[in-house]
Write a structure and sequence with these properties.
There is one protein chain. The chain is α+β, with helices and mostly antiparallel strands. The chain has 4 domains: 2-50 and 174-224 and 505-556, no CATH class; 65-148, Distorted Sandwich (Calcium-transporting ATPase, cytoplasmic transduction domain A); 235-263 and 386-501, HAD superfamily/HAD-like (Rossmann fold); 267-382, Calcium-transporting ATPase, cytoplasmic domain N.
């Protein structure tokens, strides 16, 4: 205690010191010993509670990989993780933590991503798919190609954010510290009044004993850190108790569209084929050809074919015309895929089936496919709404968010198509990054805000909001650094889970503080009237401390948040869409 005072840290420790000194002066050494034992026991209990609350955060930092197995000159050499460079080929053995971000360099691998995303079931990855550092090889040994240095990889960013979180005190905890300092003069005042009224200094001692230590500063950190740890188990990294508290206080949620409410990339939404062709064969030919391209549409088509289990062959004589499409030879047949100008040049009219497929009104990207000069298929690519988006917004509404807003740089028609069937109160479209910031600030002036986004252009808006939430699963470093909360799994419903955890954890912290102070106050009054001896008071205060800490530890558990909307709910647009005559969302297409 003296060491703490010499550092300038004066708090409720002072009450314990005064109580022990007074007990010795008044000839109550047993009371002094009990206070010392209870005080030390309280510290041990608090450290245990903190350890439990921080367990998941410590687990993240303690398991950082240190060694990588790098292929060099035909053999494998162990090197420090810091020596790995992009392009290095690495071996990851069974059960090992992936040292850096990379791409799978063989046909298949099984990865346990629980430490990063919170997903308990290992996932299968195929050749070329992205792998993240910090995940674990749950299958046989595999080869990968590094795509980032260790310091720039996913896991290093997580560790930096966890370390930063430990140094940030939540406003709630700072407020508790201030109240704790006020408790010392209050306790001395009550003790002095009891002494004066009764003429018995032992009563004053009993009052001091039951006033120490204070549940105010024990409960709040444990509950808030417990909430942060629980969120980490679900793949959501909060940068300390301050971020959790800000999230719990949010009443308006703003969402970016692309990559947040939508899947954020091109995907096959519809296909039409000539009468002589089957859709699976056209997709197989296109995907085989597109393996030679790095375009986002090419990656989406290859992924769609692999999801259907189509066997891809090897393209030959590939020629890519930037911005127009690609052509090549597959199984002896000339295949072209891309724009109409490339695949069906001139003024020739499209066949009826192709014209109908190409004339959609949803601004989807159309890929024409020709085989040996004859039109074989028309594929429509679009950015679809996340399947969990509507349920997420509904869950946020139930949890306490009063206003839901979509802010996007896309045109009004696209924004209306995506947002029309969501329970939004307002849709703001055609926004530049600075206009997004202005929109966030305008909403913040009305109520505490939470901004959710995933792109680099969302970073300023995330920083401007009361709490910024980054969809960090796809490695948007700028937005993750600017955000207070990072969702490490590519699911927007984790935002609703994190919000529910934050609200519950803050409520538990407040409950523990209020109950602890009320019980301590009652005990001080009872002691002032002479009904509690100093020794009994020390034991009683320890019981209060145990009770509030155990209550605060409830933040580690609790019911899992149900994001799915209740059966029978109907989703309706809010009152102010910001766009005239917003139609309902288009029905899902079927192939």
């Amino acid at each position: 205690m003296v060491a703490e005072f010499l550092r300038g840290r004066v708090g409720v420790d002072a009450i314990a010191l005064v109580a022990m000194a007074a007990a010795l002066v008044l000839g109550e050494p047993l009371a002094a010993v009990v206070v010392a034992i209870m005080y030390a026991g309280g510290n041990v209990l608090e450290e245990y509670a903190r350890g439990r609350a921080e367990y998941n955060l410590k687990a993240l930092t303690d398991r950082s990989p240190r060694i990588a197995h790098r292929f060099a000159d035909g053999h494998v050499a162990d090197v420090a993780v810091g020596e790995v460079r992009p392009g290095d080929r690495l071996l990851v053995r069974a059960g090992e933590v992936l040292p850096v971000d990379g791409a799978l360099d063989q046909d298949a691998a099984v990865i346990d991503e629980a430490a990063v995303t919170g997903e308990p079931v290992p996932v299968a990855r195929s050749r070329g798919e992205a792998l993240r550092s910090g995940t674990v090889n749950a299958g046989e040994a595999f080869r990968m190609t590094a795509t980032a240095r260790a310091g720039e990889s996913t896991y290093a960013a997580i560790v930096r954010m966890v370390e930063a979180a430990h140094g940030v005190k939540a406003p709630f905890i700072r407020m508790a510290d201030r109240f704790a300092i006020l408790l010392l003069p209050a306790a001395l005042l009550v003790a002095g009044a009891a002494w004066l009224a009764s003429g018995d200094p032992v009563r004053a001692l009993a009052v001091l004993v039951v006033a120490t230590p204070c549940p105010l500063i024990l409960a709040a950190p444990v509950a808030l850190i417990g909430g942060v740890s629980r969120a980490a188990r679900r793949g959501v990294l909060m940068k300390g108790g301050a971020a959790l508290e800000a999230m719990a206080q949010a009443r308006t949620a703003l969402f970016d569209k692309t990559g947040t409410l939508t899947e954020g990339g091109a995907r096959l939404v519809a296909a039409a084929t000539a009468p002589a062709w089957r859709e699976e064969e056209v997709l197989r030919l296109v995907a085989t050809l597109e393996q030679a391209s790095h375009h986002v549409v090419a990656e989406a088509l290859v992924a769609a074919a692999r999801r259907r289990g189509l066997a891809l062959s090897e393209p030959a004589a590939v020629e890519e015309v930037r911005g127009a499409g690609i052509s090549g030879t597959i199984d002896g047949r000339r295949v072209q895929a891309g724009s109409r100008a490339l695949v069906w040049p001139g003024e020739r009219p499209l066949p009826g089936w192709a014209a109908a497929a190409a004339d959609g009104q949803d601004h989807a990207l159309v890929v024409f496919v020709a085989v040996d000069g004859a039109l074989a298929g028309v594929l429509r690519m679009g950015d679809g709404l996340r399947p969990e988006a509507a349920a997420t917004l509904a869950a946020l509404r139930r949890a306490g968010i009063g206003r839901l807003v979509m802010v996007t740089g896309d045109d009004a028609q696209t924004a209306r198509r995506i947002g029309g069937g969501l329970p939004l109160d307002h849709i703001a479209a055609d926004l530049e990054p600075d206009e997004k910031v202005a929109a966030v600030k305008a909403e913040t002036a009305r109520a505490p805000t939470m901004m959710v986004g995933d792109g680099i252009n969302d970073a300023p808006a995330l920083a401007a909001a009361g709490v910024g939430v980054a969809m960090g699963a796809r490695g948007a470093t700028a937005s993750s650094e600017a955000a207070d909360v990072v969702v490490m799994i590519d699911r927007v419903d984790r935002v609703a889970e994190a919000y529910a955890i934050a609200v519950r954890s803050r409520a538990i912290a407040l409950q523990s503080i209020v109950v602890g102070l009320v019980l301590s106050g009652i005990a001080m009054v009872v002691a002032a009237f002479g009904y509690i001896t100093p020794v009994a008071g020390a034991l009683l205060q320890e019981g209060i401390d145990v009770a509030v800490i155990l209550n605060a530890l409830r933040a580690l558990g609790g019911p899992e948040t149900a994001v799915a909307a209740p059966h029978g709910d109907t989703q309706k647009p809010g009152r102010d869409t910001g766009l005239e005559d917003a139609p309902p969302a288009a029905p899902a297409r079927t192939r």
